[in-house]
Amino acid sequence: MSSFDVAAALGLPALPSHIARVEQKLTEILPPDNPYLSEPVARLLQSGGKRLRPSLVIAVAASQGKKINDKVITSCAAIELLHVASLVHDDIIDNAASRHKTPTINHREGVNHAIIVGDYLLAKSGEQAAMAGREIAQTVAAAFAFMCDGQARELADTDNLNRTQASYIQAVNGKTAALFAAACKVGGLCADLPKTQVIALARYGEDFGMAYQLIDDILDFVATSDSLSKPTDVDARQGNYTLPVLLALGGPNGKTFETLLLDQRLPGEPLTDALLKDNYIDQSIRKARTYSRRALHALSALGESFGLENLPPAFMEWALAQHLE
To answer: Which of 132, 143, 177, 316 could anchor a disulfide with 75, C-beta 3.0 to 4.6 Å?
Structure first.
């Protein structure tokens, strides 16, 4: 499967060289004298990932003529470390065995070890953000709080057949979209933009993050583990009822879908087949496209957005083409 070319989507050919500087910055957080931390962290950082969130920081700053200096790179590191830390904690909650075809820390070293590593990454994220400046530190800390809020809301609705779409959207907004919003806001702060434009960029990131997570939730049903580099058919089995399922539960055949969800002996295909047949996957894709369009509308406050408008639709079309052939 081809990987998504963020630089091409943004029209930013220098992006890979900037991300290489971010990668170098990330390696600098490894404690050389403590393999208990350095070895699992190195495995995490080398396991892959799109580095999409630091790419947003760079893209926003570059789009406004900002030189990609040490402050921008340090801000990128803060954002990415927060993201990676959240993945470590997600893997603990989900009892996940692998991510990007690499064993998770909770699976290889154990849950206690994973908690310590996740907390270490959070601390280092805060340290990098503080080095970048007070407003950036506040933005990263606020994003972390929103992420915790979103995760808590998701956990509170576990196995809840009466979960509302509004509750789901609120959880996604915190768990995923908040960090996209923070990345774009940080890019605007690095570029010293007026407050109105920084707010517009945060809204762009938030709506892009919503579209991104909705697509990810859809792919949990229709993609393969190999194509996503992580387990699929997970959410519904763990009682995390995402948009396709919520649409189905609220539809005319809701009781049939309740039966499919509650019978844990069934493999994933009957549920997925029913969601496809009744067009709930298509309806969810349309909702994701709506958020993508909203992201583009948010850019109108900037005037010229220099490629930022291409990223949300390009990512969506790539993801759907890869997994919904």
So the answer is: 132
Strand ranges in the chain using DSSP code E only, listed in sequence order: 98-99, 102-103
How far, in Å, CA of 123 to CA of 113, rounded?
16
Q: 311: burial class by Cβ within 10 Å (0-12, 13-18, 19+)? A: buried
- Closest to 184 (Cα-Cα) out of 301, 18, 57, 10: 57
Note the pLDDT tens digit of each residue in 77-99.
Answer: 999 999 999 999 999 998 888 88
Query: In 3D, which of 154, 277, 284, 170 has the Cα closest to residue 218?
Result: 284
CB 58 within 8 Å of CB 9: no
Amino acid at 162: N
Closest by CA position to 7, among listed 206, 18, 182: 18
Angle at 122 between CA 121 and CA 127, to 5 degrees: 95
Rounded Cα gap, residues 103 and 306, in angstroms: 39
Dig out the tokens for 179 from the structure.
């960090």
The predicted-structure confidence for 139-184, as pLDDT tens digits, reads as follows 999 999 999 999 999 999 999 999 999 999 999 999 999 999 999 9
Q: What DSSP state is assigned to residue 98?
A: E
Q: Which tokens hold the place of 143?
A: 């994003």
End-to-end CA distance of the chain: 12
**Alpha helices, H only, 64-175:** 70-94, 105-108, 111-132, 134-156, 165-172
Cβ contacts of 314-317, under 8 Å, gap ≥ 24:
314/4, 314/9, 315/4, 315/9, 315/208, 315/211, 315/212, 315/215, 316/211, 316/215, 316/288, 316/289, 316/292
pTM of the predicted model as reported, rounded to 2 decimal places: 0.94
Is the torsion defined by CA of 198, 303, 288, 230 positive or negative? negative
